[in-house]
Specification:
By secondary structure, the chain is mainly α. It has one domain: Lysozyme (Orthogonal Bundle), CATH 1.10.530. The chain contains seven helices and four strands; from the N terminus they run H-E-E-H-H-H-H-H-E-E-H. The strands form two sheets. The protein has a two-stranded antiparallel ribbon. Helix 2 crosses helix 3. The radius of gyration is 15 Å and the shape is globular. The chain starts with a helix and ends with a helix.
Length: about 140
């Protein structure tokens, strides 16, 4: 399964587009729509390159979702989990109660777990509260 335009739009809306490298709230150099691999201070890119990086990253994160999730997913569930992993990394999903509940077939319990992932640097961030709510809504949306 591949991310839908709705899933890409969700990621873009929360990551925002920055064509110059910056430090995110977790103190990581970031560029484009939240790309972090190999980003250095002072780096700049074009909008086209930002789109390429987004698609490359999404493809990688979709692979993690496919490997970690053992139950069938709707498009919305897949998109929500891909956004989650894009933002938090596969390690956080792999060790999460969200994944454990999901793989046990408890979709409602898994959905409720999104709300818990709202901190960076130990602090609740309003942007993460909004993102997790949007991911949860997408996860719970009807196909």
């Amino acid at each position: 399964m591949h991310i839908s335009q709705k899933g890409l739009d969700l990621i873009k809306s929360f990551e925002g587009l920055r064509l110059s490298a910056y430090k995110c709230p977790a103190d990581v150099w970031t560029i484009g729509y939240g790309a972090t691999a190999g980003v250095k201070a002072g780096q700049t890119i074009t909008k086209e390159r930002a789109e390429e990086l987004l698609r490359e990253d999404v493809k990688r994160f979709e692979g993690y979702v496919e490997r970690l999730v053992k139950v069938p997913l709707t498009q919305g569930q897949h998109d929500a989990l891909t956004s989650f992993v894009y933002n938090l990394g596969a390690g956080n999903l792999s060790n999460s109660t969200l994944l454990r509940l999901l793989n046990a077939g408890d979709y409602a319990g898994a959905a409720a777990q999104f709300d818990r992932w709202n901190k960076a640097g130990g602090k609740v961030l309003a942007g993460l509260v909004r993102r997790r709510a949007a991911e949860r809504a997408l996860f719970e949306s009807k196909p």
